[in-house]
Design brief:
CATH architecture of the largest domain: 3-Layer(aba) Sandwich
Oligomer: single chain
Distance between the termini: 52 Å
Order of helices and strands: HHHHHEEHEHEHEHHEHHEHHHH
Strand content: 5-15%
Strand order of the largest sheet: 1-7-6-2-5-3-4
Largest sheet: 7 strands, mixed
CATH topology of the largest domain: Glycerol-3-phosphate (1)-acyltransferase
Length: 379
């Protein structure tokens, strides 16, 4: 993209970086003291406290060597792919997929996903697409996670676009939502797929439910075009996605927040809590992981609420139930003694006041599946 094209780019402040912007972004990252300090802290926790001043130049040199040949978004994603291979080998018992064969490489899809992990949910979707030779998605990420400049750089390098959750005031919010809706429509029309969570924030209680407000935001672009809701939403090629983790690396932290909210009515998030959640989601043990991509929705849903219900039913029916889910719901049929021991040991390692909440978290997908089956039987 030329400079004149950049100057007229309507989505310049939210879109991912283009290839010609990659080298400058990498230079900014290598000059970012906060990023270098964070890497030093996580790679050398003991040494960094006393010798951070010495480690940072060494880390900068290592990054310069590592990134010397990275010149495009594709190059960035190949770096991510190498990392994903190592992460999957060290933190999972395997990642499986269903539904990838239904995708047309010539189309852009709107993947509406349940949301359990900040970074790993879209990463696992991308991994499946990448391994099948399909184009990876553009990822929606809230600006609440981008408080540090280096976080913004890293996300936009990896095909993430920014959702402006921090804007205040009705006029500013409406402007931000219109821009977001237009960007998503523009991306899909150009054949670029989108990943977005079914609601703002993770489903910390395990209850995967689509917020109709997200669907209303999608329709803003359709409304501008004076198109009906059902017809426009069909044109977006919506694919419900259910991501299942046998073990959630953030289960204890989520339970702690839920318990505190229940007891005091509020919860004060720490300054770096989201970053800690991202790190624990990456390095934490996940057991088996399954990603299920449903068929693109084709029904004539005449309202956001009706469409949200259809997405929920698809996600609940697609969700791979692991022994951890079944045991938490009191359903032990087919569960081995080893699987039971592994789940019970995980619970036993947590504070006793959190265990019931964690069990409820793992049991919820089983309850949602049963409710979905009952609803479909009555239809």
């Amino acid at each position: 993209m030329t400079q004149s094209q950049h100057d007229t780019d309507l989505f310049a402040d939210i879109r991912p970086y283009h290839d010609d912007e990659v080298p400058a972004a990498l230079e900014r990252l290598m000059a970012d003291d906060e990023l270098l300090a964070a890497i030093a802290h996580f790679r050398f926790p003991s040494l960094s406290r006393w010798f951070g001043w010495l480690l940072k130049p060494l880390i900068r040199s290592a990054l310069q060597r590592r990134w010397s040949k990275v010149r495009s978004v594709r190059d960035v994603q190949m770096e991510v792919a190498h990392f994903m291979e190592r992460m999957i080998a060290s933190t999972t018992d395997g990642v499986t997929y269903s539904g990838l064969e239904q995708l047309d490489s010539e189309k852009g899809y709107l993947f509406i996903s349940n949301h359990r992990d900040i970074a790993m949910d879209p990463a696992f979707v991308n991994w499946g697409l990448f391994k099948c030779g399909l184009e990876t998605v553009r990822i929606a990420i809230g600006d609440n996670l981008l408080r540090k400049p280096c976080a913004t750089e890293l996300m936009r390098l990896n095909k993430s676009f920014i959702v402006k959750r921090s804007v205040k005031g009705p006029r500013e919010m409406m402007k931000a939502f219109n821009e977001l809706s237009a960007y998503i429509a523009h991306s899909l029309a150009d054949g670029h797929s989108i990943w977005i969570a079914q609601k703002e924030g993770r489903a910390k209680d395990g209850d995967d439910k689509t917020d109709p407000a997200i669907l209303k935001m999608f329709y803003m672009a359709g409304k501008q075009q004076k198109r009906g809701f059902a017809e426009y939403m069909q044109s977006l090629n919506i694919v419900p996605v259910a991501i299942s983790y046998e073990f959630d690396p953030g289960d204890e932290a989520k339970a702690r927040e839920l318990v505190e909210r229940a007891q005091s009515g509020s919860y004060e998030k720490g300054e770096f809590e989201d970053i800690d959640s991202i790190v624990s989601g990456i390095v934490g043990i996940k057991g088996r992981v399954h990603v299920s991509l449903g068929k693109p929705l084709s029904g004539d849903y005449d309202s956001p609420e009706a469409l949200a219900l259809a997405i929920d039913q698809a996600i609940h029916s697609q969700y791979r139930l692991f022994p951890s889910n079944l045991l938490a719901a009191g359903q032990a049929d087919g569960v081995t003694a080893e699987e039971r021991q592994r789940f019970e040991s995980r619970l036993a390692a947590m504070p006793s006041e959190l265990r019931d909440t964690v069990r409820a978290m793992y049991a919820k997908p089983v309850e949602n599946r049963a409710a979905c089956v009952a609803t479909m039987a009555d239809a």
